[in-house]
Amino acid sequence: MEKISVSNILKCSIVKQKIIYNNMSQKKPLILVTNDDGDTAKGINVLTKLMMEIGDVVVMAPDGPRSGQSNALTVNHPIRFKKLEEKPGLIRYSCNGTPTDCVKLALNEVLHRKPDLVVSGINHGSNAAINVIYSGTMGAVLEACENAIPSIGYSISNFDPDADFSDFEPYILQIARQILKNGLPYGICLNVNAPKAAIKGVKIARQCEGHWTKEFAMATDPHGRNYYWLTGYFDNHEPEAQDTDEWALANDYVSVVPTKIDMTAHEYLGVLKDVIWE
Question: Rounded to an integer, what distance in angstroms lies between the CA atom of residue 121 and that of residue 48?
């Protein structure tokens, strides 16, 4: 009898996965969906439903909230995932890792081919302005972008777990369809945010300059020890500028910001050389 090894088990598992995905249409786009609010959030369920209108969908989402995780990776404990649902055109998984873990895991261990599009969200809460660097929603998008996959993060300025996405839905579909058709340059992804109010239209915008202030609320536990909750207020440095994502949202437009993975300050390269070697 052949000895059963871990490697043989893994090989069998991979074969089974490929058989499952080969049953999906080879003509439809393959779309990977994730988020940072967890696999039961209303936002990801709406986004999944929308993406099923234009392609075959695989969901790999965290098994609970992972807000503020940015591009965090799980390095101190094993990552696991499990299948939640399978039906024609859709397979859903949950993962105990971060949003970035979810994308890495899906690309390396689950999908039988590179997806045509990766979408993340719909996040309950805005990811405009400086929020983009903290966002787990956008962390997943940037991971896909780094792997040369067109990718979009969708968020709405509404933290309500039962937020109404219906006004936003046509814009989500339109943007996704156009990116599937036209693609994006390597290193560029989209950060799409919707206002809470009725939407007037879309503005192509830049990231607003600003920062968070009064970021912690202090309280005292029954033992007299201080503890802190993250909170804060966003200080918009350019409230009158009409080309920013914050202006668009404040005026009831969907903001679409092309976002880069290259964080080099190219305009400062020559200056820095003079500063260091003067």
Answer: 9
44 preceded by a cis bond (ω within 30 of 0): no
CB atoms within 10 A of CB 29: 18
What is the model's pTM?
0.85
3-state per-residue secondary structure call for the chain = CCCCCHHHHHHHHHHHHHHHHHCCCCCCCEEEEECCCCCCCHHHHHHHHHHCCCCEEEEEEECCCCCCCCCCCCCCCCCCEEEEEEECCEEEEEECCCHHHHHHHHHHHHCCCCCCEEEEEEEECCCCHHHHHCCHHHHHHHHHHHCCCCEEEEEECCCCCCCCCCCCHHHHHHHHHHHHHHCCCCCEEEEEEECCCCCCEEEECECCCEEEECCEEEEECCCCCEEEEECCEEEECCCCCCCEHHHHHHCCEEEEEEEECCCCCHHHHHHHHHHHHC
Alpha-carbon gap, residue 206 to 258, rounded angstroms: 7
Q: What is the pLDDT of residue 176?
A: 98
**Pairing of the two strands 90-95 and 81-87:** antiparallel
List 219's β-bridge partners, or say none: 227
- Under a CB-based contact definition with an 8 Å cutoff, are residues 106 and 32 in contact? yes
| pLDDT tens string 29-87 | 999 999 999 999 999 999 999 999 999 999 999 998 888 878 889 999 999 999 999 99
Q: What is the distance between the alpha carbons of residues 252 and 198, in angstroms, rounded to a whole number? A: 7
